[in-house]
Design brief:
alpha+beta, ten-stranded mixed beta sheet, 292 residues
């Protein structure tokens, strides 16, 4: 991973449901297209959690300008956190279950088309967020979504169908939680801080979110009866959730959330169990370059 003309591609072999032969075909396509675009592609497969961050950090120090994350939202998060406030730009090749950031940015879900975009795109400045010291680029949150993220991480098989089954089962056992948000106590079904407009799979939690406006959208869903759950789900996927009486949102630059116990959170779908009962969420305006 040596020269300044090198393009680095970081590949998570566990993301998505592609077969080994499909992944090899994609690797060959990436190498060929990169060569045609004038790059030497260094394609590295991750072997452990945090490996993408290590690889991307080294690439930034070496002055590599294009760093591609080939994987799901977790891989993109690990890669992007090393690129914040640097001159290196992130290319996204979505291979995950939700692909929330890619969908928000209009990046093709076809991996080959996404590779072409990453190789030929121009750097565009976007915001990022932090929940305590944990960076996020799409969404972070507490409540039901964090509960599902923790359950999903325990599943032996990834993919959309597994996520749907996990979320459905979780819905029947989850109990709304009470949080103090900037000193105001609220009992909520979920609490989301959205940099991008959706979780993934076109589930639009913050329909009006702008990823480059220097703000996050704080979205609250208050407890609801089973009789309206279908209507809320319809609104979530129809991009009209902000029209529901159960949804409340506002733009913020910083927010403090406290509870009576250590907080279960997620950052870009990755489950995190805090040792603290309080977290601070803030936006980092214009902190990342993305190839679009």
């Amino acid at each position: 991973m040596a020269s300044i003309s090198t393009l680095l591609a970081i590949v998570n072999p566990l993301s998505g449901t592609a077969s080994a032969s499909q992944r090899e075909q994609l690797r060959l396509y990436l190498a060929r297209q990169a060569e045609q675009a004038g790059y030497t592609a260094d394609i590295v497969v991750t072997t452990h959690p945090g490996h993408a961050t290590e690889l991307a950090s080294a690439a930034v120090r070496q002055g590599i300008g294009r760093i591609l994350a080939v994987g799901g939202d977790g891989t993109i998060n690990e890669t992007a956190r090393a690129l914040r406030r640097s001159a290196s730009a992130l290319g996204i090749v979505p291979m995950g279950s939700g692909n929330g950031l890619a969908r928000h940015l209009g990046i093709p879900l076809d991996p080959k088309k996404a590779i072409d975009k990453a190789l030929n795109g121009k750097p565009v400045v976007v915001d990022s967020g932090e929940i305590n010291e944990h960076p996020f680029f799409c969404t972070a949150g507490l409540g039901f979504e964090a509960f599902v993220a923790h359950l999903f991480a325990q599943q032996p098989i990834r993919g959309l169908s597994t996520y749907i089954r996990t979320a459905y089962r979780a819905f029947w056992t989850y109990k709304p939680e009470t949080f103090a948000i900037n000193g105001h106590e609220k009992t909520l079904f979920s609490l989301t801080f959205a940099n991008a407009a959706q979780f993934g799979n076109n589930a639009w939690i913050a329909p009006r979110a702008n990823i480059a406006d220097g703000r996050l959208d704080q979205c609250e869903i208050r407890p609801f009866s089973m009789s309206v759950s279908g209507a809320l789900a319809w609104r979530l996927f129809n991009r009209t959730l902000d029209g529901s009486a159960y949804w409340q949102g506002e733009p913020i630059t910083k927010s403090v959330v406290a509870s009576s116990q250590p907080l279960m959170i997620h950052a870009d779908g990755e489950p995190i169990m805090l040792s603290e009962s309080e977290c601070e969420v803030r936006v980092l305006p214009g902190s990342l370059l993305v190839l679009l």
